[in-house]
Each structure stands twice: as structure tokens, then as C-alpha cells.
Amino acid sequence: MSDLVQVRKKAQLTLPRSVRQKLDIEEGDFLDVQVRNGEIVLKVKKLVDKEQAWFWTERWQQGEKEAEEDIRSGRVHRFPGAEDAIAFLHKQAEKKQDKTGESHS
For the domain with range 9-45, which CATH number is right: 2.10.260, 3.40.1400, 3.30.300, 2.40.160? Predict the structure, then answer.
């Protein structure tokens, strides 16, 4: 796909509608502009509230991917209440400790 755009006054240009639609670019969005090997590269950037930034860390996103895979593979447990879930986790920790030879204290 190739479109020709014209640089206007104050170095402004209009992104073609087909590009905006394909990349879901809306008015007010930000674009990261880089020059690579004599070419202009634009990347769409979405801003995230500071209070939600933790969710988008690499570590958290990896955990999300693992959780999604567990759900798809049926590696899930349902519990009637929080106490049952906590008891299950304690048993899992004990099993892990038994395998590694660590103490239960």
C-alpha cells in the first residue's frame, strides 16, 4: 500500500483515511516520528494513565499471557470461597517445599 501526501504550510500533512482506518488513528492520538536510513517512520502511540502503567509493564503482560494460556488449556480451579482458595495455595506451596527440601515454617 502506498499513498502520496503533500507537505503543506508549517510542514503539515494529512494522513490518508485508509491509513488512519487501518491503524485506528483518531484525532488527538500521538505519533512517534523517527528517521531511519533516510526514511520517516511513524508509530502510533497511545497514552496510558500513570495509575494504570503497571498493567502495561513487560512483567505484568507476560503474566497475563501465561494466565490466558492456563485458561485456554483448562489449568484453572474454582473455589466456593476465598478461604478455600487460600487453603489450596498453601497446599501447593507445601508441595513445592517438599520437592525442594525446604522447611514448612
Answer: 2.10.260
